[in-house]
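INFO  loader      accepted 1 record
INFO  loader      residues=440
INFO  predictor   begin
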Amino acid sequence: MAYFSDKHAPTSSSPIASPPPWTLAPKMSSWSVSPRRIVLFVLAAGLVYSLNAFLLVSKPHKSQRPSYLTEHLPYNSTVLPHAAFQPPEALPHRNADIVDTFASYKYRNTCNISSLDLHSPFAPLCTDRKSLLTAISSGGRIGHDAPYMPRGCDFRWFSTEEICEILSRFEKVIILGDSMMRHVVGSVNVLLRKDLGYGAVTDWNFSPEERQDCFCNYQFNVKACSVQGIFKTGDVVKNDPESLACPANTVDVIIEQMIRFPIPSDELDRLRALLPAEKPTRPYAFIFGHGLWNDLDLQATLDWLDTLLDVSVQQAPWLGPRSQPMIPHTRSRGRKPAVAAKGERSKQGSGFWPRLFLTPNAAGKEKPDEWLVSQGNKALMIFEEAVREEVKRKGVEHLGTWNMSIQSNKFDGVHLDLRGNLIKAMMVVNWLNMLEVEDF
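INFO  predictor   done
INFO  writer      dumping tokens
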């Protein structure tokens, strides 16, 4: 019988093997704390911190625009042969384009409008303002009231959060023009308030009849809801701040209705009141729209625009060029400027004055016969092409809306419904998004 006892255990004649490393007790480090070593450690840490701070300060000024506008991103290599439109780029900033951004909006199901009903994304995305404005001005639809497709490159369909961020880059976005431009402001408020039912109107003071007459698509019915439209985001902040999805005091969009030339003096005074004499911390953007109230008279429209440009730069010299005297815009037909004469405005400006001109919608079948010659589709197309060339000479960019609106519903042959106006508003937001605000 074997007994397991240390006393009777056999002894080995070979040397005792070293125990495994993991059975050894850890050794005490030979490094000891001393005042000298503490001082060296503190000096090394300070050097690392100083070097990091220097590198941060020496970095170039970061653009306020998103990186996909300021950095080169690879183009989507997925190509479908023989497809009219390629799928959108598989990039994070296009995620909002491929989903219904209205899914969380009030009255989404009742109004039955999806953002995908208005815009079908494709690749490539427009990369600069020139290609963007050309594409969205010359696109089309595959059927009446179908999603609008720009020509050649696509535009973004932004989420409300993205729109808030874009508008926050500006001190103020000023829109000047007629009822069609008022509807652009209303549509922007639909997007900012996430409300398809009443987002464009002053529903906080509505009667029961107004709540019925100015709902969903009918918010832009000029016969029943013209005075109930929202003219500025400041009214929303004042009367219904909880409905605004943007952070407090970050967006300011306003319209001043100036419908015909000559422009009454009180309307010009309202424009002056919007403009500070000193340069603000953020830029201003200007969006103009005119034509029908002067019966598509090209010269009257150009004189209308010149007057507004002159008044603006006179009141706010920082809008003008950096190194040139601010000379009023020239006029023909012998008409005199409505404001200061040549050479009066010599203060130097910022050189950053974003301006966009929108020409009128296409005419619909409900347009009265008496206007079919002077304001019919032939006249509107000629007017749009002429305005595009003329405003370019004044440093104003142009967005045509005839193509977008020719196959869209209109209440009276002139004014678009909610769907059409939301597309127009998103076009304007795309233009704002591409402005080099870091140059201000």
